[in-house]
């Protein structure tokens, strides 16, 4: 399970894993699904539909779903998960030979597996992200201000990208940083709207 604030890169990480995981470890394939707004039953049905096709719509019972998923060996990546610990356990138990990776804002996996809390980028990588977004290297006078901004937002990738976009539009890092009044931005739109 990977969890952390919105904008830290959970979706990007899950998509990367979907396209770069060793397929020979998962003979039945790799599935990436958005879990936004879905409950455990909906997700179980979506997982089933990823492995089985029918000419007519099919909605197996929960017991049938568990039986049909018993022998599936796949990597299942679920993004934007908002399930309880019990629901996550139920999902894992329904497909026991699958490897699940959950992406969520709050920790959703307890006891089984490993949980990783994502944090912001280290200063060097945050500056590289700014430069990539700007399309050029930072000038000498911009670098200390950009570094201070990155520290202030704790290297949060989305905030860094949005700040760089505002710089491209003519704002300075000083103007942008003045919009941040805490050690962590909570609502980007209200603080970065210039």
Radius of gyration: 21 Å
- Class from helix and strand fractions: alpha/beta
DSSP strand content: 5-15%
Return residue spans where pLDDT drops below 50 for at least 5 consecutive residues: 181-194
| String of helices and strands | EHEHHEHEEHHHHH
Shape from CA axes? elongated
Largest sheet: 5 strands, parallel
- In what order do the strands lie side by side in the largest sheet? 2-3-4-1-5
Determine the N-to-C terminus distance.
Answer: 36 Å
Structural account:
26% of the residues are buried. The model is unreliable at 181-194 (pLDDT under 50). This protein is elongated. It has a five-stranded parallel β-sheet, sandwiched between helices. The protein starts with a strand and ends with a helix. The chain has helices spanning 10-20, 40-51, 62-69, 85-94, 123-134, 143-152, 157-168, 173-178, 188-192, and strands at 2-3, 30-34, 75-79, 99-104, 116-117. Helix content is 44%, strand content 10%. Strand 3 (75-79), helix 4 and strand 4 (99-104) form a beta-alpha-beta unit. It is of the alpha/beta class and 194 residues long.
